[in-house]
Design a protein that fits this description.
Length: about 280
């Protein structure tokens, strides 16, 4: 009997100790969004299924050529833009829809996410093949400078990739004094040979003094504010994010379109926007 009582007391003490230990143990999971010196203010982790969250994303729709003689029709169909398996999928297709040979999607945060300055981090895997032209970039939300159009109001290209030049990532800005049509654009490139096979982080850090662009931890482009007026620096007002795959166009289609590659996808694991902690 004495042995049984001792065994019972031992069991009670063990259960009590385990219960107390369990109730005070902190979770092991770390906050993967935390970056020292920055505060997360907007994000989409794509932890849902179906259409992109309408509280965060809108669409540019149509087949106007978008100023670059692009060949696709941008739609709001699930076939072209959807969230599945924890990723945003932007899919370019050759499906002869709505009178166009190619379709794709162009997602925008305009009116749902607009920022002046910050850190913008987009983790993505890019499409491949001649004729594809994926981009992660920003345009102004209000066009009130100069002629009220492009390039006077600015453009920030966090990532561009043309399929006929695989593995070369471009970061650029455009404004009244610096843009590609007059050969003065400010731009740089970095080689990321596996950009169509693996995910990488495409990052912009933007403040009142400079724009810096990275891939992962590699800083490869800087554009500084020369303090000469809006013609040189229109980047003092709200811009919004754009994610798209163009097909063909003046640059993307410079060496034609390989019709055997379709469909092609840009996959995005997350989009995160941070403000600097003062």
């Amino acid at each position: 009997m004495k042995a049984i009582i001792i065994l019972q007391l031992s069991l009670i003490l063990t259960l009590t100790f385990c219960s107390c230990k369990s109730s005070t143990t902190e979770p092991d999971d770390k906050d993967t969004t935390a970056i020292p010196g920055w505060e997360l203010v907007w994000s989409d982790e794509f932890n849902y299924e179906g259409y992109p969250n309408p509280q965060k994303w809108g669409y540019d729709i149509g087949d106007s050529g978008w100023g670059n003689n692009e060949k696709q029709y941008y739609s709001a169909r699930l076939e072209n833009a959807r969230v599945e398996n924890g990723k945003l999928i932007i899919e370019a297709r050759r499906d002869f829809w709505n009178g166009k040979e190619y379709t794709s999607a162009r997602l925008v945060t305009r009116g749902k996410g607009d920022w002046t300055y910050g850190r913008f981090e987009i983790r993505a895997k890019l499409p491949k093949g001649r004729g594809t032209w994926p981009a992660i970039w920003m345009l102004p939300t209000v066009w009130n400078l100069g002629n009220g159009s492009w390039p006077d109001n600015g453009e920030i290209d966090i990532m561009e990739h043309v399929g006929y030049d695989p593995g070369v990532i471009h970061g650029s800005i455009h404004c009244n004094k610096y843009y590609w049509r007059i050969g003065t654009q400010k731009t740089a490139t970095i080689k990321i040979p596996d950009c169509t096979d693996n995910f990488h982080n495409y990052i912009l850090e933007w403040n009142k003094d400079e724009i810096k662009i990275f891939v992962d931890d590699k800083h490869y482009f800087t554009f500084k504010n020369e303090n000469k007026g809006w013609e040189y620096w229109p980047f003092f007002k709200d811009f919004h994010l754009i994610l798209n795959i163009a097909i063909g166009g003046d640059w993307g289609g410079a060496q034609g379109i390989d019709n055997s590659i379709f469909p092609q996808k840009m996959e995005i694991e997350y989009v995160r926007v941070y403000k600097k902690i003062e």
